[in-house]
Amino acid sequence: MNLTGRERRILQLAKQGLSDYKIAHVLKICPPTVTKSHRNAQKKLAEAQADIKWATKTGLDLTDSDFGSEDES
Question: 18, exposed or middle or buried, with CB in 10 Å at 0-12, 13-18, 19+?
Fold first, then answer.
């Protein structure tokens, strides 16, 4: 599952140290929307990290793949 543009932007702003409230102000959206998107992004990243850990553990070669391609079916 890919991060949405909003989720990416929220993570970038959070990395700069902005609170969800300040991010909401910057993006001109409601603070609860930021909080929900922030949690969703963190969940997606945790799932991706678990998938990578599993793939590495099973010996799957991740270097020869189409990760990041937008053409997922």
Answer: middle
